[in-house]
């Protein structure tokens, strides 16, 4: 399994002519973080959803690191809402970090999503909510 998977997504149709970059880090076989950099707008938000749901059949926990975003539009909020539903349906526990652009949109829209102050707190929250997998041992 690759340690890092990087996916630069140009947003040529974005009025800001920005770009988003999604980098997946495998912390374990069932826990990933996805670092999101640049701008999350109408052009790049669908790409985030596609990238962030790529491994739902193999992971138990996902943390989106949004702390490096320069712009977060309402399409970003739509993407997070879609991810919340997709992860819930797949039984994947998730959380995200925040930054000023994300906080502004979430506050205005009064969104109730698992947003945390830091990557460590988001990881801790997803680990607490992840189920334990018990391994049975046969008697010798």
UniProtKB/TrEMBL annotation:
By its UniProt entry, which PROSITE patterns does this protein fall under? STAS (PS50801)
Q: InterPro entries recorded for this chain?
A: STAS_dom, STAS_dom_sf
Name the residues that span the membrane. Answer: none
STAS domain mapped to chain residues: 29-92
Instruction: Note the coiled coil stretches, chain numbering.
Output: none
User: Which organism does this record belong to?
Assistant: Mycolicibacterium brumae
> Which Pfam family name is an example for this entry?
STAS
**Name the record gives this protein:** STAS domain-containing protein
């Amino acid at each position: 399994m690759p340690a890092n998977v990087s996916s630069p997504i140009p947003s040529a149709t974005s009025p800001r002519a920005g770009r988003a970059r999604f980098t997946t880090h495998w912390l374990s076989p069932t826990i990933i973080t996805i670092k999101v950099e640049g701008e999350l707008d109408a052009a790049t938000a669908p790409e985030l959803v596609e990238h962030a749901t790529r491994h739902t059949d193999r992971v138990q926990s996902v943390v989106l690191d949004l702390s490096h975003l320069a712009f977060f539009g309402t399409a970003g909020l739509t993407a997070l809402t879609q991810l919340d539903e997709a992860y819930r349906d797949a039984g994947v526990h998730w959380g995200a970090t925040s930054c000023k652009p994300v906080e502004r949109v979430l506050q205005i829209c009064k969104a109730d999503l698992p947003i945390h102050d830091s990557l460590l707190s988001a990881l801790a929250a997803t680990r607490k909510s992840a189920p334990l997998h018990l391994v049975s041992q046969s008697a010798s």
